[in-house]
Design a protein that fits this description.
Length: 137
């Protein structure tokens, strides 16, 4: 089961199993062993492969149907994977379309002595701060 899932992930990434193994520092002999037998990689290798493809270890072992886990459809997983691999104008266009902003927010933080310090925070941190009951913004 592992080999089939690994091969599927490689095909979706448009890479050969040996190319992926080389990128991850795995020997071609290990890849051959996975292909020719029911051998499964060691846990640390499974974790590397799962992280590389953005899937769960459970998926690689055939215990989950969806590559990304609970209830995610195959087409959605492909969209997510394509987005994560996108660069430059394509990723920026999708971000604009989805109104995703990764730009940091510049905030001034007041110190007890009355001075201010500027600090960049993420959009997510800014939203948390705005949600605080005593936030004077």
């Amino acid at each position: 089961m592992f080999w089939k899932k690994f091969l599927d992930c490689c095909n979706k990434a448009e890479k050969s199993p040996n190319a992926v193994a080389k990128e991850l520092g795995i020997s071609s002999g290990a890849v051959t062993a996975w292909k020719n037998s029911d051998r499964v990689p060691q846990e640390r290798i499974l974790l590397k492969i799962a992280e590389y493809f953005g899937v769960s270890v459970e998926y690689l072992l055939g215990k989950e149907k969806s590559p990304a886990g609970a209830g995610l459809k195959e087409k959605h997983w492909r969209l997510i994977t394509a987005y994560e691999r996108a660069e430059g104008p394509i990723k920026e266009a999708v971000d604009r379309l989805l109104k995703i902003e990764d730009k940091p927010v510049l905030v001034k933080i007041a110190a007890r002595d009355g001075s201010f310090q500027e600090r960049e925070i993420t959009q997510e941190e800014w939203e948390k701060i705005q949600g605080l009951p005593d936030a004077n913004l």
